[in-house]
Amino acid sequence: MVAGAGLVGLSLVLPHPEVADQSDLILVALAMLAGGLLCFGLARRLPTWAIHATLAGVVALTGLLIYESGVAAGQYGTIFVWAMLVASYFFPRRLALAHLAWLLAVYALVLAVVGSTAGYSVVTRWIFTAVSLSVVTILTSEIVARRTRADLRARSFFDLSHDMLCTANMDGYFVELNSAWERSLGYRDEELRAKPFVDLVHPDDRKRTEAETAGLFDGADTAGFENRYLAKDGSWHWLRWSSTLSADESLVYARATDVTELKRIESEREDLLVEVKVLASSDALTGLPNRRTLDEQLPREMARARRASAPLCLAIIDIDHFKAYNDAHGHPAGDGMLRDCAEAWDSELRGEDIIVRYGGEEFLVLLPGAALDQAAGTVERLRAVTPDGQTCSAGLACWDFSESAEDLLERADVALYVAKEAGRDRLIF
């Protein structure tokens, strides 16, 4: 709630739709801030039902924010994502799905009464939101469920002494093993005792294992050491070791835990985090970077330009009469036009140039190291390759090394407005 209130404040500082009632937005944000701080102070005392009510209230307030902003698009939907991540991470899937159903019902009501849906039909925007939030909820719940099941298994094994227990002599052979070894790796007791234990270690882990064993024989205990062991079926199992040397220094007492499943879950989680990060920084329709990427890249390019005393230009390109194109050809054709423009323009830029989908039919091009005349030539080249005979208008601004990123964006936006007012199909800088 506190982060959501901050997001509202940030959205009011950045360029935003003029239809928004700023005073109402500020009141809702203050309500979220106060409620969030109250919940934070009472977090350990809140019963579970109050937490569910709070999440539901956050969703309702976010719907009110979207309604007061006048446009069902943009950054307020981020709060929806946060709410579902919290619900799916901390609660069982059935409760998370109940929160999702409430969220989608609130959003459907908002879409029915909000002034604008940013060029999409109410049904299209609701379906996109439903699909994306359902994926977030199901994937997060599945990862949490898998991790929980793995933790419960590990705890049960520990409580029942089902860890892989063994002793080994100074020659590197197993002396005694419990039945957990056969359950995990498939070998019978005599098969494991017939060869040095290092023979079953993965070749890439063998040197580390020999060094750890040498330190153990010198009196240094092992805790948390991991290596891969060959199972009888040919698969490799990750084992986590805790070992100590006996008082007479004749035997090593060791406990190994099979953490293969945990490693797999961690790998899946890392892959998912990478995928979520890519999705969060990319526009789903065109595949281009989105405004979040711009918020990260623009300050970096400004800092780089200042250090190198190099020019930095920024252009905003708007497809002319895009709404009329959508009305005449349908939204699928409009989406295709956006994708075609993105592909055509991106292919014309230099490797260091950055193009992002700025919103709706607007694209933003960042041109590091390009002086105004060079940047203007680049933008004209982009306008010339706009597909299907479509025209576009563009506003261009060159950074003066002192203004803020917001001011630079505003100047480019003003130039674009002038280009539209002057009849479109032109570049103004």
Identify the notable features of this structure and list them briefly.
429 residues, alpha+beta, Beta-Lactamase, Alpha-Beta Plaits, five-stranded antiparallel beta sheet, five-stranded mixed beta sheet, 57% helix
Short description:
By secondary structure, the chain is an alpha+beta fold. It has helices at residues 2-13, 22-41, 48-69, 77-90, 93-113, 122-159, 180-185, 189-193, 206-217, 260-281, 291-308, 322-329, 331-348, 372-384, 405-421, and strands spanning 164-169, 174-177, 222-230, 236-245, 251-258, 312-319, 354-359, 362-368, 392-398, 427-428. The protein is elongated, with a radius of gyration of 30 Å.
Topology:
Blueprint: H1 2-13, H2 22-41, H3 48-69, H4 77-90, H5 93-113, H6 122-159, E1 164-169, E2 174-177, H7 180-185, H8 189-193, H9 206-217, E3 222-230, E4 236-245, E5 251-258, H10 260-281, H11 291-308, E6 312-319, H12 322-329, H13 331-348, E7 354-359, E8 362-368, H14 372-384, E9 392-398, H15 405-421, E10 427-428
Parallel strand pairs: 9-10
Antiparallel strand pairs: 1-2, 1-5, 3-4, 4-5, 6-8, 6-9, 7-8
Helix pairs in contact: 1-2, 2-3, 3-4, 3-5, 4-5, 4-6, 5-6, 6-10, 12-13
